[in-house]
Specification:
alpha+beta, 4-stranded mixed β-sheet, disordered C terminus, globular, about 50% helix, single chain
Length: about 230
């Protein structure tokens, strides 16, 4: 629960990714939201090696997640989280200012924090060992640190960004996980504790387990991949 092959809502994810990406593919976000509210969903798993041409009609860059909610299709995890929160109680606060705060932090996670985390992945993983990456890393780490200091100050002693747990926390927690093995969170105990609270939620644990269970052990061969699971 809530994976149900007959569910109205379908979440598209990948059937295989390299080890370093497992548990971090962004279909984790709508899975987590569904788990929080007990909303059943079906899986549609496509190949990350040879993505089916039809998928580009739903996601112009061939990425995941995409959802189909009874014929309504959305891409981009932020848009998906907002769609789910607007349709189902429990993902956005009712109090007007808290609701506004949740929406602000939802966009802040993806616009003000995640781009730097994405660049960090480029520098430390995909371009590791290249001269430009070594030159860029110190200033990038300093810039991310400044952003995270501001985030920690804004969070303060609250458990969650907008009062009750919301889609803002799903967004921000999944972004903060991208800090990986750096000291960025360890040096900011407020954020380390925040992330620990979020990832200790049973809904997150179920969503993570569901994503990991969807991955096969070996990449499909491009020559025989259909891009779909049976």
């Amino acid at each position: 629960m809530p994976i149900d092959p007959q569910a109205r809502l379908t979440i598209t994810g990948f059937d295989w990714v390299p080890d370093f990406a497992r548990g971090y593919v962004r279909d984790l976000r709508p899975r987590w939201a569904c788990e929080e509210i007990g909303l059943p969903y079906a899986e549609r798993l496509i190949s990350a090696v040879e993505r089916p041409p039809s998928h580009y009609a739903d996601q112009p860059w061939g990425q995941v997640p995409v959802i189909d909610d009874g014929g309504i299709r959305l891409f981009e995890s932020g848009a998906i989280l907002l769609h789910l929160a607007q349709k189902h109680a429990g993902l956005l606060p009712d109090e007007p200012q808290q609701r506004a705060d949740a929406l602000s932090w939802l966009f802040a996670a993806f616009n003000s924090v995640e781009p730097m985390m994405f660049e960090l992945g480029q520098v430390t993983l995909f371009a590791a060992g290249e001269q430009w990456a070594a030159l860029r890393k110190p200033s990038l780490m300093a810039f991310i640190g400044e952003r995270l200091d501001r985030l920690a100050a804004a969070l303060g002693e609250r458990d969650w960004l907008a009062g009750p747990f919301s889609i803002a926390d799903i967004a921000m927690a999944t972004v903060l996980r991208e800090a990986g093995d750096t000291d960025l969170l360890d040096e900011r105990p407020v954020l380390a504790a925040y992330l620990a609270r979020a990832t200790a939620r049973p809904a997150f644990e179920r969503a993570l387990a569901a994503q990991l269970a969807a991955f096969s052990d070996h990449p499909p061969s491009p020559s025989d991949s259909t891009g779909e699971t049976p």
